[in-house]
Structure formats: C-alpha cells, structure tokens
Design goal:
Elements: H1 3-28, H2 31-38, H3 42-70, H4 72-92, H5 100-129, H6 133-164, H7 172-188, H8 202-225, H9 230-252, H10 266-296, H11 301-326, H12 331-349, H13 358-383, H14 392-423, H15 428-464
Transmembrane segments: 12-35, 47-66, 75-94, 100-127, 139-161, 167-190, 202-220, 232-249, 270-292, 304-322, 334-356, 362-384, 405-423, 435-454
GO molecular function: transmembrane transporter activity
Subcellular location: Cell membrane
C-alpha cells in the first residue's frame, strides 16, 4: 500500500474507535440526570452502563473471524450502521415515559454489538495496512489515543448538551459521527479478508456470551439484593458453568475463538490480566466518580465533565509520548509501570472528601490520566508481543475481549461495593474509598505480574539467542 491509503485506513480506524468509546463516558456523566428522569436505582443505572459494554465484550471474539471470512470493510460498515441505529433508539427512549429505561438499555445493546464489531476490525485494518510490527506499534498507539479521545470528549459533549436539551440528545453526536465515518469508510477502505482455515466457532461464542452476561447479572444482583439471593447465585453459577463450557469447547475446536495455547506466552498472559484489570479500574472509577460528583456533590453534568477532563485529557496528551517509548522499551515493562502508577493514583483518590473542590480532584485525576496512557497504549502492543504472526489477530481479539470484560465488570463490581457499603451505613465518601482501595490492590497485583512476565520474556529471548 502507498502512504496515502495507509494514512486513510489509520485515520478511519482512529475515528471509528473514537466513536465507539464516546458513548461510555457520555452516558456516565449523565447517569444522575437519567436516574432523576426515569427513577432508576443504582442497579438500574449500572444496567444502563453495562448494557453497552456486555455486547461489546461478547461479540469481539467472533468479530475478527467475521472480518476474515466476509471482509473487514463489510464488517466495519455493519458495525457503524448498528452504532447509528442503537444510538438513535437510545435517543428516542427519552420520550418513552415509563418504558424509557428498558428502551434505553435496548438501544445500548444494539450500539454495543456495533462496537464489538468495530473494535477488533479497526485493529485488523491497521495490521493489514501496516504489516511491519515496529512501524505498526506507532499506529496502534494512535488507535489507543483515539480510544481515550472518545472517553475524553464524551463527558464534555454531554455536559454541554444537558445544559440546553434533554438527556436523549446526548446520543445524537454519536449517531451523526457513525453515519459520517461509515461514509468515509465506504469511500476509502479497501476490502481485505483472510478466509483460509477460518470458520465461526458458534459453541464458543454462545458459551462466552452467556459467561459474560450471567456473571455481570450475578454481580449486580448480589450488590442490590444480597450475595445469597437466588438471582445472584443463579447468575454467578451460570456464569462459572458457561466459562467452564467455553474452555472445554475451545480445547477441542479446530478453529477456536481463542487458542488457549496463547496463554503459554508470559507476555500474552500478563497483558490479558492487565487489560482486564486496567479497564475494570478505569471504567469502574469513572462510574463511581460520576455518581460521587453528581449525587454526592450535586454537580452538573458539565461540572463533572470538566473534572474528568483532567483524567482523560491528560491521557490523550501523554499517549503520543508513550507511543514513542513503545518503540524503545519492552511493552510489558511499560505496562507494569502504568499499572503501578495507576495503583498510586487510586490511593491518591482516596484523599477526596465530601467537600473536595476541583483543585483537590484535578491533580489526583491527572496522575491516573498518565497511568492510563501507559496502560491503554502498552497493553495493545504487549498482547501481540512475541506471539506468532499467524496468531496475532486472535491474540489481539482475545486481549480486547478481556479488556472489555474488565470494563463491564468494573461498574458492576465497584457499584456493588458502593451499594453494599452504603447499605451497611457507610457514607458515600467512605464507600467510594473502599472501592478505590480495591482498585489499587488489583492494579498493584497486575503490575507485579507484568514485571515477572517481562523478566521471563527477557530470559526466553536470551536463551533463544544462545
């Protein structure tokens, strides 16, 4: 490919991932407003958030196979069409009265299926356009910056819209951008596919989808109705059984969604755990802080967005610098650094009090923003580090699925912690601190795992060179 087609492909991929992640934080800062308009409980607001992320995580593993079989350009366009349709449904739900919450969640599901198709397809488009690993790392870092850009602009756009219009209008920018991006893709993207030896693993897809949805249902119900409630137990047991079924099916499939042999690579295993923990902490923290700033401090959506800008905006600024480091340093080592810094940032955030002003929040969120730049940029590169070329696409899809599952678990688990602690008499601030401390512990454990993996990786390289 010439430089112009490469630039166009990368540009479309970056804009598309921006559009895909825009709804996450656009909805997060609007949760208090949506709750006030619909009467939704904390559990109901959790479902508004995870109704988008669950289908993203569930569809990602098969999306790469769809692209290989039927063409990445075609799958990309379908994903964008679903994104536009889903956000249009979500926008219309604001006029549905008592049915608004259910229709909103349905729109989120449709949008999430579109996002699940887009995320791995954009990485596949970049890999096809830029086959050289060293050069590709820089473009993957751009892709990660586009992802964080969506998380950054989402709150600001919603904050401004909610000053002048109802909450249904927060979805309109995504609809418009999805249609525009699809038009550019239809004109610029070449078709590409790799059908040899590939077929859809329907049993694996079904088991994976049930495992993700059931486990999240169990966690949310546990936080709302008690961990011993029949619905919580049923969800968690069903999720565990489906996971066992998925692992069994994948070991026997001739064309698995996820080749379990990939986990023999220390770098891939560490990147997978890190991806899950990083998005668990990031999306979960945004969910918690949105509730704290909105319900606890009674700030407007725009005021919440300005505070979150110190998190996501710093990540956008730091992203290109991390991209340059990825060409010089071990991606697993940089990932370990980002996770450790993230743990420090979470401990800093436990210093927030009920009357904390913007200055108290800003520097703490900025530290987390730098950590996120390292985590989000390095994890995508670390996932395919040392992985055989023919398994690189599958490794990227598997890592992305774990990342999205972490993003789904974050609001569910941390929301359950918040609900449980407040239900036992703790203040919102104390409950928030408990959830943030849990985040810090998980990030630190993942950092230690990555540091060990980086050491094992160096030893393997040294052994292979002797």
């Amino acid at each position: 490919m010439t430089s112009s087609p490469v630039a166009r492909t990368v540009a479309v991929a970056v804009v598309a991932i921006f559009v895909t992640y825009l709804p996450i934080t656009a909805v997060s800062v609007s949760l208090t407003t949506i709750g006030g308009a619909t009467g939704a409980s904390t559990a109901g607001l959790q479902w508004v958030t995870v109704s988008y992320i669950i289908p993203v995580a569930a569809v990602i593993l098969s999306a790469g196979v769809f692209g290989d079989l039927h063409g990445r350009r075609r799958v990309f366009l379908i994903g964008m069409a679903l994104t536009a349709a889903g956000t249009a449904i979500a926008a219309a739900s604001a006029t549905a009265g008592s049915a608004a919450l259910g229709i909103l969640c349905a729109g989120q599901v449709v949008t999430g299926v579109g996002g699940g198709l887009i995320v791995p397809t954009t990485l596949g488009l970049i890999a096809h356009a830029v086959p050289e690993p060293a050069r590709r790392a820089r473009f993957v870092a751009m892709w990660a910056t586009g992802l964080v850009g969506g998380l950054t602009v989402g709150p600001l756009a919603s904050g401004v819209i909610l000053r002048y219009a109802g909450w249904g209008w927060i979805f309109t920018p995504v609809t418009v951008l999805a249609v525009g991006t699809a038009a550019l893709a239809a004109r610029w993207l070449p078709e590409s596919r790799s059908p040899t030896g590939r077929h859809l693993d329907w049993p694996g897809q079904i088991f994976a989808s049930v495992a993700i949805a059931a486990s999240i249902f169990g966690v949310i119900e546990g936080g709302q109705a008690g961990w011993g409630s029949p619905r919580a137990v049923l969800g968690l047991v069903a999720g565990a059984a489906a996971l066992a079924g998925f692992l069994r099916v994948e070991t026997r499939s001739t064309s698995p969604l996820l080749n379990l042999a990939l986990f023999r690579s220390p770098a891939f295993s560490a990147a997978g755990v890190a991806a899950l923990v990083a998005l668990f902490a990031l999306v979960g923290t945004i969910f918690l802080l949105s509730l704290f700033f909105g319900a606890g401090q009674h700030l407007s959506p725009l005021q919440i967005a300005v505070r979150l800008l110190f998190l996501n905006g710093v990540t956008v600024v730091a992203g290109p610098f991390v991209g340059r480091l990825l060409g010089r340093w071990s991606p697993v080592g940089l990932l370990a650094f980002g996770l450790a810094l993230g743990a420090i940032a979470m401990l800093c955030l436990t210093g927030l009090r009920a009357g904390a002003g913007i200055g108290d929040a800003a520097w703490r969120l900025a530290v987390l923003g730098v950590a996120d730049a390292f985590m989000l940029s390095a994890v995508a590169v670390a996932a395919i580090h040392r992985v055989p070329h023919d398994l690189a696409a599958m490794a990227a899809a598997g890592n992305t699925a774990l990342r999205q599952y972490g993003g789904t678990l974050g609001p569910a688990v941390l929301g359950a912690v918040l609900t449980t602690r407040m239900g036992s008499g703790a203040s919102m601030v104390d409950a928030l601190h408990t959830a943030l401390a849990l985040n810090a512990g998980l990030l630190l454990a993942a950092a230690l795992g990555c540091a060990l993996a980086a050491r094992l990786d160096r030893q393997r390289v040294a052994t292979s060179n002797t």
